[in-house]
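=== Structure Prediction Worksheet ===
Name of assembly: unnamed complex
Input type: mixed (protein and possibly other molecules)
Chain count: two
Listed entries:
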Amino acid sequence: MDVLYFAWVRERIGHPKERVETDAATVADLVAELSAREERYAMAFSDLSALRVAVDQDLADFDAPLDGVREVAFFPPMTGG
Amino acid sequence: MVSFTGIVRNRPDGALEAMEIEHYPGMTEAALEQIASEAMERWVLSDALVVHRFGVLKVGEPIMMVATAARHRADAFASAEFLMDYLKSRAPFWKKEYVATGEAWVEARAEDEAALDRWQNE
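=== Predicted Assembly ===
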């Protein structure tokens, strides 16, 4: 699946998008997997309350299931308008 | 017809040099369409429009606009406010402020999230 990062999450991780092969069952499992990779991932995901997630471009929760999902995005709360 | 245009405001200290708006191609457009169609369902509108820019903007430049058209004034005003409230917290946009000494991401405000409650029970 594709994992996308926006705003300061993108800056902290260092790239906007990456292809991830995973059999993580939920978003939270994916976050744990990514956080275990390197310090910059652990830093980006250090405070989940400061993050939101979209699964296949729909706002979701961290316990959302990932089977059949093609795209997951992590970003701070939106500040448009 | 009611329209609201949001302009890039300077900070209280007048130090804002530019604002950069990032969006999520695909999800942002879908979110804006969904917000507009929900307004069309909830009120008797002849039309609703939401426009939002992205990229680097200067102080004084327009950022976004919402417009609603209805036979009844109350529907036009209420739906325009609905569009604004949802645009601020449900459309994937993130603002970064540039000042002489550096740059910082704008933090989402709790009251913007709270503003949605009004539309839950109405």
